[in-house]
Amino acid sequence: MVKQIVLAFFGSIFPAILFNIDRKKIIWGGFCGAIGWTAYLVVYNHINSNVMAYFSGAFIVGIYSEFMARKLKTPAVEFSIPGIFPLVPGITAYKTISYIVDQNYSLAYSKGMQTIAAAGAIGFGIMLSSTTFRFISMIIESSKNNKYERR
């Protein structure tokens, strides 16, 4: 498990370098991928559901990205894009194409649906975490403004 987390860390650093993210933020992008993969592993080991594990990992990546974006005053995308790289279901997409080439359409359909479900869970996890974080920030900001208006 530790080996997978370390590989997820490096699997997030290299896309950050590829996308020319600021050098000071590359390590934080690596931590984003490692934290997301850790969440994936924990949920998968407890629930044994790929879709929920992908969703949980992406949700954690999104929350971490939004938090670090506020802390380092940078766009959240600089952390979320490298952070989801370890979660991308590349092997299932590859197997889908491989089964299509081999004309094994029933397995291709099965793997294709797994790929689509995983991609949807990742997208929904990032979207929901971003929306939740911004909603909570808006409520906190609103309560601060109301507090100052009462004085």
TrEMBL record:
Gene Ontology cellular-component terms listed: plasma membrane
Location of this chain's protein in the cell: Cell membrane
GO biological process: succinate transport
Parts of the chain that traverse the membrane: 6-21, 26-45, 51-69, 81-101, 113-136
Coiled coil: none
Keywords: Cell inner membrane, Cell membrane, Membrane, Transmembrane, Transmembrane helix
Domain Threonine/Serine exporter ThrE: 4-131
Any Pfam family: ThrE_2
UniProt KW Transmembrane helix keyword: yes
Record's bilayer topology term: Multi-pass membrane protein
Family: Belongs to the ThrE exporter (TC 2.A.79) family.
PANTHER family, A to Z: SUCCINATE TRANSPORTER SUBUNIT YJJB-RELATED (PTHR34390:SF1), UPF0442 PROTEIN YJJB-RELATED (PTHR34390)
Protein name per Swiss-Prot or TrEMBL: Uncharacterized membrane protein YjjB, DUF3815 family
Species of origin: Clostridium amylolyticum
